[in-house]
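Risk register update: the risk of archive-format incompatibility is retired. Evidence:
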Amino acid sequence: MDTRLKKRPRMAWFRLEWWLPALIAALILLFWEWQVKIGGLSALFFPAPSTIIITLKKLLTNGEMTKNLGATLFRVFAGFLLGGLPGLILGLSMGWSKKMRTIIDPFVAAAHPMPKIAILPLILIIFGIGELSKVIAIAIAAFFPMLINTMAGVRQISPLYFEVAQNYGANRIKVFTRVVLPGSLFMVFTGVRLALNISLLISIAVELVIAKEGLGAMIWFSWETLQTEVLYASLFMIAIIGIFLNFSIQRIALHIIPWYEEQKA
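Archived output:
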């Protein structure tokens, strides 16, 4: 029985979550290539996928893409760690403590809907126009999905588990390690996935505005110079990063919490 349960998520992953999207993407790219060849799409505004791939290879070879990719990834992970870790800790605390949730939740409800890119000018005034301000903007964006999902993960744990732990004389540390943390892991990983995706999104948005390096800066410069093949190559690289991040998180989650795939379904 255990063997079958372990194999099912892998089979579902390869059959449904990988091959079908890959097939659809391949068909779209072939249709796009064909439309450019016959003149149905303008090669200036919609360069052929083959041209984009050649451009991407060239950018990787001369180091331009690698340099900008490194700058973006540094900001994404630095901002995620700076905002995600406090969000995780505070989310666990708010989910476990009704008193803390009552005090802090109104502030979260007020700040969360605020567009994070809209407060970038304020961040620049406080932290300057250097690298720190970019990381702070990303950290603020990563903080809220991590906090809210973690808090929801703790709150969805059945009170019965807490009662059983208390009946067996478990102290607060054991309740946290044996009930709160394991019971909220599914939502924690959901928060990690959202926080990383939003970190990437905000990183690109910030780079479009104030950065000289990064994928967002590449997109802005290619738009100004009408190098649309570079623009599409940058967007393609962002899509690859997004796929890689989500795939990695799901693989890690399956190792730590084997029931992740069943709950996700």
